[in-house]
Write a structure and sequence with these properties.
This protein has 110 residues and is α+β, with helices and mostly antiparallel strands. Helices cover 26% and strands 27% of the residues. It is built from two helices and four strands. Strands 2-3-1-4 form a four-stranded antiparallel sheet, with helices on one face. A hairpin with a 2-residue loop joins β2 (35-39) and β3 (42-48). α1 packs antiparallel against α2 (49-65). The longest helix has 17 residues, at 49-65. The protein is elongated and about 40 Å long. It starts with a strand and ends in a 32-residue tail after the last strand.
Length: 110
Amino acid sequence: MRLRVEFTTEPFDLDEAPAHAVVAREVVGSASLDSVDVGPFGNTAEGGSDEVLAAVNVLLRETLAAGATRVSLQVNVIDAEAGSAETGSPGAGNASGGNASGARGTESGR
């Protein structure tokens, strides 16, 4: 099974990425995931279920330890047989209302 996780961390700072946002970026960037997209208004990562769930575990533990007061995430199952994502627009169900992690830039973990 393949999963997609979308997440944000708070508190948000437009001027400088907070420590918890930097940690979040490092966690997903170093995980064994197929793709990672880190941006100022949300972050997305995809991969096998074991890899995504392991990354989420580390993400929650390390971002909270680094000062996050809220971590919002959504996990979706991706159709493994067809290799395509579920219907709907990416980020449509962002529980944080578009709040950002403060991480900047885009990374590809392919």
